[in-house]
Amino acid sequence: MTETITATQPAAAPAPSRAPELFAHVADRDAAIAHFRGRLGFEADVSDVAAALAGADPGAGSDPDAGSALGFVLVDTRSEASWAQGHVPGAVHLPGRRIAAEASSRIPAGMPVVVYCWGPGCNGATRAALEFAMLGHPVKEMLGGFEYWVREGFAYDTADGRAQLAADPLTNVAEAELGGGAVADGAISCAC
Predict the structure, then answer these.
(1) Residues 26-62: pLDDT tens digits?
(2) CB 70, CB 56: distance < 8 Å
(3) Domain boundaries, the chain
(4) Residues 115, 141 contacting (CB under 8 angstroms)
(5) Which PROSITE patterns does the entry mention (predicted)?
(6) Which of the listed residues 43, 50, 96, 192 has the most CB atoms within 10 Å of its CB?
(7) How many Å apart are CA 98 and CA 49, to the nearest integer?
(8) 45-56+66-160 has which CATH code?
(9) pLDDT for the residue numbered 42
């Protein structure tokens, strides 16, 4: 993915803030661009991952070369019990504590990796991303983890088979916001 940001006229001076303490320390334009561009190099949201996986073979996760067709490998870094409870279809299961010892035999050298753990309250994916980076893999963390995968209404695999819950109304478009139109039946993108 190539990202282009075009510089145009300098932004007009902002209107006086009603919350000056909020913006007492704010980055200038160049620092803000560098920061947010940098974050995009480290993070992907669940909708972006779902879009990248669309059309992929859901059983490919057990194949050591799983990412060759996609250009990346999705890695679930949670425990065995968590994996059995539910995981993203096509993900490779490699708990964070085993990455250093097992990644080289499970994931091709240099293959880009996207990691996830439980959710935004867990830093297991961050620790896993660090391990993969130290092994030389380009790596991104899936923001929201498995929790937001499920909350956004995407299908997931369990020890008992495929499951899918209705999208959480806090992550899906509410009927009132659509002006009385249809509510999305399944998972949707936030379209941001």
Answers:
(1) 899 999 999 999 999 999 999 999 999 986 654 444 4
(2) yes
(3) 45-56+66-160
(4) yes
(5) RHODANESE_3 (PS50206)
(6) 96
(7) 23
(8) 3.40.250.10
(9) 96
Encoding tokens for residue 38? Answer: 């940098």
Q: Which residues contact 133 (CB under 8 A, 6 or more apart)?
A: 139
- Contact status, residue 150 vs residue 86, Cβ threshold 8 Å: yes
Q: Put residue 26 in one of left, alpha, beta given phi > 0 → left and psi -120 to 50 → alpha.
A: beta
> Which residues neighbour 122 within 8 Å (Cβ) at sequence distance 6 or greater?
145
Bridge partners of 143? 45
Strand partners, 92: 75
**CA gap 16, 3 in Å, rounded:** 32
Q: How far apart are CA 159 and CA 120, in angstroms?
A: 24
Which contiguous run of DSSP H or E holds residue 156?
strand 156-158
Exposure pattern of 148-166 as b/e (b: 16+ CB <10 Å)? bbbbbbbbbbeeeeeeeee
The residue whose two tokens read 């309250």 is 121
- Which tokens in the block code for residue 94? 């490699």
Residue whose pair of structure tokens reads 């949201």 in the numeric block: 45
Write the pLDDT tens digit of every residue in 117-136: 999 999 999 999 999 999 99
d(CA 85, CA 119) in angstroms, rounded, equals 14
